[in-house]
Amino acid sequence: MPQFAANLSMLYNEHAFINRFEAAAKDGFKAVEYLFPYAFEADALKDQLLTHGLQQVLFNAPPGDWDAGERGLACLPGREDEFKRAFEQALAYADRLGCPRIHVMAGIKPTDKSDATLAETYQRNIAWAAQQAAPHGRDVLIEPINTRDMPGYFLNYQGQAHDVIETIGAANLKVQMDLYHLQIMEGDLAAGLRKWLPTGRVGHLQIAGVPMRHEPDIGEINYAYLFDVIDELSVQSGWDGWIGCEYRPARGAIENGTSDGLAWFKHRYAAM
Question: What gap in Å lies between CA 118 and CA 141, rounded to an integer?
């Protein structure tokens, strides 16, 4: 049975961030993820997890200057020291929160650097991060992101991400397979799941409706069918990861805006 984690950066936006943990737990979620924890002390977040019986299953390493449009540092030549400091901060938070996975964003490709230079920088930084994370028992995740939402992003395709993982060869380096991004870039989601999930190189799944990135029961994807495929593959391959609900509620940031859109979850999964 799929395990779902509430993405607190996108869900429950009618609440202050620190209050979203309680809201997610009340709706039946057992785990949470979000973009970045760094605006809060780790102990404050840990208190929320413990109080509401939640697991922290994923967050992102610092991405550079997010407000200025940066979307990661890993592929950026000349930013290696900043990348390392950022990842060390993420690792410290992961240790304190008991979070097993850290997503490292690749970055927007600089136009004045060759693809070969960017790829070399990216692989070197990601290999270093995986090496640092291994003694802590943490996985490093890399995520292909669609070019419509994030033009110029370095990593866009599943095969590209799996090639990086095979080249580096670190057991704790895995793919964050977001079915929303995959549908936009490649489609054929069931075949993609059947191809990649049994490899053991997928560390986390994420979902959202396409094209509007709303609830998974809105839009062109038949998620009920895909959840059955994931169940089938989990039995066959032993995959036991989490599925992050990284979508924008269609009702918006109004009272119960997230909760009222969870029929897809509550009717089938919340009591499991």
Answer: 18
Residue from 168, 93, 72 nearest 138 by CA: 93
The verdict on whether 186 is a catalytic residue reads: no
H/E run at residue 224: helix 223-237
Active site residue 246: yes
Active-site hit among 143, 186, 215, 220: 143
Question: What is the pLDDT at residue 1?
Answer: 73
Nearest in space to 177 (alpha carbons), one of 147, 155, 144 = 144
Q: Give the three-state DSSP class for 33.
A: strand
Contact status, residue 182 vs residue 205, Cβ threshold 8 Å: no
Q: Which of 14, 33, 215, 246 is an active site residue?
A: 246
Domain boundaries, the chain: 3-266
109 secondary structure, DSSP code: P
CATH number of 3-266: 3.20.20.150
- Considering the entire predicted model, what is its pTM? 0.97
- Residue pLDDT, tens place only, 6-22: 999 999 999 999 999 99
Q: How far is it, in rounded angstroms, from Cα 47 to Cα 79?
A: 34
